[in-house]
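Question (not urgent): is this output format expected?
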Amino acid sequence: MDARFPQIADHLLLIERELRVQGWWSEDMPEAGLLASQEPFCVDTLDFSQWLQWIFLPRMKQILEQDLPLPNASGILAMAEMVYANQAEKSRGIRVLLHQFDELITEHS
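Got this back:
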Protein backbone atom coordinates (compact mmCIF):
# COMPACT_ATOMS: atom_id res chain seq x y z
CA MET A 1 0.00 0.00 0.00
CA ASP A 2 1.20 3.48 -0.88
CA ALA A 3 1.96 5.43 2.28
CA ARG A 4 -0.14 8.34 0.96
CA PHE A 5 -3.38 6.31 0.89
CA PRO A 6 -4.68 7.32 4.36
CA GLN A 7 -4.03 11.01 3.74
CA ILE A 8 -5.62 10.85 0.29
CA ALA A 9 -8.66 9.01 1.70
CA ASP A 10 -9.14 11.76 4.28
CA HIS A 11 -8.69 14.38 1.59
CA LEU A 12 -11.37 12.83 -0.62
CA LEU A 13 -13.80 13.14 2.28
CA LEU A 14 -12.92 16.83 2.60
CA ILE A 15 -13.58 17.36 -1.11
CA GLU A 16 -16.95 15.62 -0.80
CA ARG A 17 -17.81 17.73 2.24
CA GLU A 18 -16.96 20.96 0.41
CA LEU A 19 -19.10 19.97 -2.57
CA ARG A 20 -22.00 19.40 -0.17
CA VAL A 21 -21.42 22.66 1.72
CA GLN A 22 -21.45 24.66 -1.53
CA GLY A 23 -24.60 22.94 -2.78
CA TRP A 24 -22.72 21.28 -5.63
CA TRP A 25 -23.62 17.74 -4.52
CA SER A 26 -26.50 15.92 -6.18
CA GLU A 27 -28.52 12.99 -4.92
CA ASP A 28 -29.43 12.06 -8.50
CA MET A 29 -26.83 10.25 -10.58
CA PRO A 30 -26.56 11.42 -14.20
CA GLU A 31 -27.56 8.95 -16.91
CA ALA A 32 -24.94 6.33 -17.76
CA GLY A 33 -24.34 7.84 -21.19
CA LEU A 34 -23.36 11.16 -19.63
CA LEU A 35 -20.85 9.42 -17.38
CA ALA A 36 -19.28 7.57 -20.32
CA SER A 37 -17.86 10.63 -22.07
CA GLN A 38 -14.38 10.23 -23.51
CA GLU A 39 -13.59 13.93 -23.11
CA PRO A 40 -11.33 15.02 -20.23
CA PHE A 41 -13.41 15.86 -17.15
CA CYS A 42 -16.51 14.87 -19.20
CA VAL A 43 -16.66 18.52 -20.29
CA ASP A 44 -19.17 17.68 -22.99
CA THR A 45 -21.68 15.96 -20.69
CA LEU A 46 -21.19 16.98 -17.03
CA ASP A 47 -20.63 20.04 -14.91
CA PHE A 48 -17.25 19.99 -13.17
CA SER A 49 -18.88 19.37 -9.78
CA GLN A 50 -20.76 16.40 -11.28
CA TRP A 51 -17.49 15.06 -12.65
CA LEU A 52 -15.89 15.39 -9.22
CA GLN A 53 -18.81 13.62 -7.55
CA TRP A 54 -19.61 10.88 -10.04
CA ILE A 55 -16.27 10.16 -11.74
CA PHE A 56 -13.31 11.49 -9.76
CA LEU A 57 -14.31 10.57 -6.19
CA PRO A 58 -15.51 7.02 -7.03
CA ARG A 59 -12.45 6.36 -9.20
CA MET A 60 -10.07 7.52 -6.48
CA LYS A 61 -11.92 5.50 -3.83
CA GLN A 62 -11.65 2.44 -6.07
CA ILE A 63 -7.90 2.98 -6.42
CA LEU A 64 -7.53 3.15 -2.64
CA GLU A 65 -9.81 0.20 -1.88
CA GLN A 66 -8.16 -2.07 -4.46
CA ASP A 67 -4.62 -0.93 -3.65
CA LEU A 68 -4.03 0.17 -7.24
CA PRO A 69 -1.22 2.51 -8.29
CA LEU A 70 -1.93 6.20 -7.86
CA PRO A 71 -1.77 8.44 -10.91
CA ASN A 72 1.67 9.97 -11.50
CA ALA A 73 0.24 13.47 -11.77
CA SER A 74 -2.96 15.40 -11.27
CA GLY A 75 -4.06 18.60 -12.95
CA ILE A 76 -7.44 19.00 -11.36
CA LEU A 77 -6.71 22.46 -9.96
CA ALA A 78 -6.08 23.90 -13.42
CA MET A 79 -9.53 22.75 -14.54
CA ALA A 80 -11.13 24.07 -11.36
CA GLU A 81 -9.50 27.47 -11.90
CA MET A 82 -11.09 27.70 -15.34
CA VAL A 83 -14.50 26.39 -14.29
CA TYR A 84 -14.80 28.56 -11.20
CA ALA A 85 -13.22 31.72 -12.62
CA ASN A 86 -16.48 33.65 -12.10
CA GLN A 87 -17.04 32.21 -8.63
CA ALA A 88 -13.69 32.92 -7.04
CA GLU A 89 -14.92 33.45 -3.48
CA LYS A 90 -17.47 30.62 -3.41
CA SER A 91 -15.02 28.16 -4.99
CA ARG A 92 -12.05 29.08 -2.82
CA GLY A 93 -12.45 26.06 -0.51
CA ILE A 94 -12.74 23.49 -3.28
CA ARG A 95 -9.83 25.03 -5.16
CA VAL A 96 -7.63 24.85 -2.06
CA LEU A 97 -8.57 21.21 -1.54
CA LEU A 98 -7.94 20.32 -5.18
CA HIS A 99 -4.57 22.07 -5.06
CA GLN A 100 -3.66 20.01 -2.00
CA PHE A 101 -4.84 16.87 -3.78
CA ASP A 102 -2.63 17.67 -6.77
CA GLU A 103 0.32 18.05 -4.40
CA LEU A 104 -0.43 14.76 -2.63
CA ILE A 105 -0.52 12.89 -5.93
CA THR A 106 2.75 14.34 -7.16
CA GLU A 107 4.60 13.56 -3.91
CA HIS A 108 6.81 10.52 -4.10
CA SER A 109 6.48 8.09 -1.25
